[in-house]
Amino acid sequence: RIEDAATAVFGAHGFTEATMADIVEASGASIGSIYHHFGGKKELFLAIFERMSADTDRRIAEAREATPSTDPQHAFEVNVRAYLQAMWVNRRVVHVLASGDVPAGFDRLRRKVMLTTFLRWASVLELDTSPRGKLLRRVLIDVMAESALMVARCAQESDAAPIMDAAIESIGRLTG
User: Fold this and answer.
1) Percentages helix, strand, coil for the chain, rounded to the nearest 5?
2) C-alpha torsion sign, points 27, 33, 34, 38
3) What is the pLDDT of residues 5-37, one digit of tens each?
4) What is the mean pLDDT of residues 147-168?
5) How does the average pLDDT of the chain come out, rounded?
6) Of the candidates 138, 42, 45, 121, which has an alpha carbon nearest to the alpha carbon of residue 78?
7) Torsion, CA 134, CA 126, CA 121, CA 161, rounded to 10
8) Rounded CA gap, 143 and 155, in Å?
């Protein structure tokens, strides 16, 4: 409840302008409870990110279990589709996290988490460590990041589906 209220407040006011009083009012929780559970505004922001990351990881794991594949390309596509679907489901949070009005150091943390997650998914592709392989990893991360932002802007899942398909098709061309 507190994280959902904070997401709405950060979305409406931005991280910098949002106050703990705004979050207290929106959540109905006491200021003491918020500080007890999160420590402060920055920690609450990070908790929102961690919750979305955990939800995304869970959705990807469920997709892999539901669609097992021995084909590396298909396995990677399953991961990408599940990731993009998670971005659509969590679109309010994506807007807050990608707003640019974030706590100091957050962009570095987000990039690190995305890189770590991506490298785990990409391991099925067996990309080499040559300059080409390194460049391909960076391009794929950027394709997924931009696709995630486009998907998150969609009001309806039916609007997001063609973007997901185009992202997977583009990734297929790059990795195939």
Assistant:
1) 80, 0, 20
2) negative
3) 999 999 999 999 999 999 999 999 999 999 999
4) 95
5) 92
6) 121
7) 90
8) 21
d(CA 165, CA 173): 12
Rounded CA gap, 43 and 41, in Å? 6
pTM summary value: 0.89
Q: What angle do CA 36, 38, 44 make, to 5 degrees?
A: 150
Question: Residue 114 has which token pair?
Answer: 């995305």
Per residue in 113-140, is it b (16+ CB within 10 Å) or e — as a string? ebeebbeebbebbebeeeeeeeebbeeb
Structure tokens at 129: 């460590």
Tokens read off for 82? 């599940």
Report which of 140, 148, 46, 45 is spatially closest to residue 88, judged by C-alpha positions: 148
